[in-house]
Amino acid sequence: MKHKRSNWLLRVYVVVFLVYMLLPLVVMGGAALNDSRFPSVLPWMGLTDRWFVDLWNDGRMWVAFRNTVLVALAVVTLSVPIGTAGAILINTLGGTIRSGLYGIMVAPILTPGAVTGISTLLFWNKYSVPAGLHLAVLGQVSFISALVMLLVLARLQTFDHALEEAALDLGASHGQVVRRILLPHLYPAMWAGAAIAFFQSTENFNTTLFTRGTSDTLTVYVFSKVRSGITPTINAFALILIGTTIVCTALYEISRRRAERRAAAESDAAASPVGETAGP
User: Is this model's pTM higher than 0.90 or not?
Assistant: First the structure.
């Protein structure tokens, strides 16, 4: 009886949690399709696509989108090598030096974005470097690279250092050990770090706001639209992003399951001759 009650409470909790998470997205999507000047679902004024048309014709939004993608790609390009190198360095150290360096490299994550943005702007202003997207990249890299470092550092905990010693004993150079043994082991964490760096960059607002100069990114663009009077075009844009995310997630899951089935089939095919030989 108690077990059934626990299952019932768990199901209720899951339903409430999903409603809490998904209902705002449903309302937002409905506002993008409602023929009303204001982003709302009630009262329902009729189905329309006018907000998607206005979004398509919004040149400033497309410029902000391009800037956001360029900044995010630059952040990934810098954050992944820096974070990976930092993780490898910390993993080779020990004692107080390791703890101190780890604290220094993790500190930017705990720093408020506004502080990071203002500090980046003031620092580079001393060297007569004007504000712009390049400073937005540097400001974001200062803390996003630490996130990459944490992912790679966690992956390093499962690395067998005996492989390095064996490769060195067999005559491999340190560069070959890194390229052929260490980095292949770290690739999953590096790819995950690249994905996190990209999305962290696209959603960053505080740091970008102080370092962007006169350029727009999507977060700054949405902020300016909210200040000047938000319209359902923002809801239309959010609906497109959500739809794209769902499609990409579904494609990834389909690809992953196909890869698992293919690996299972290859494993069965490789094991079947052994079973036939052992049978007689």
Answer: no
Q: Convert the pLDDT of each residue in 49-58 to its tens digit.
A: 888 888 888 8
Distances (CA, A) of 99 to 90, 104, 106: 9, 9, 10
All residues at 6 or more sequence positions from 215 whose CB lies less than 8 Å from its CB, including other chains:
67, 132, 133, 136
- What are the sequence ranges of the domains in the chain? 2-48, 51-233
Give the C-alpha separation, 150 to 109, whole Å. 11
**80 C-beta neighbours (distance < 10 Å), count:** 23
Both structure tokens of 109: 């994550």
Which one of 65-79, 102-116, 159-173, 216-230 scores highest in mean pLDDT? Answer: 65-79
Helix, strand, coil in percent for the chain, rounding step 5: 80, 0, 20
53 half-sphere exposure, CB direction, 13 A CA radius: 4
> Residue for token digits 């504000």?
131
Of the candidates 188, 168, 169, 170, which has an alpha carbon nearest to the alpha carbon of residue 178? 168
**Nearest Cα residue to 35 out of 46, 22, 23:** 46
- The answer to whether 133 and 148 have CB atoms below 8 angstroms apart is no
The one-character DSSP state at 180 is I
Topology, domain 51-233: MetI-like fold (1.10.3720)
Position 197, amino acid: A
Find the length of the chain: 280
Which residues are registered as beta bridge partners of 34? 47
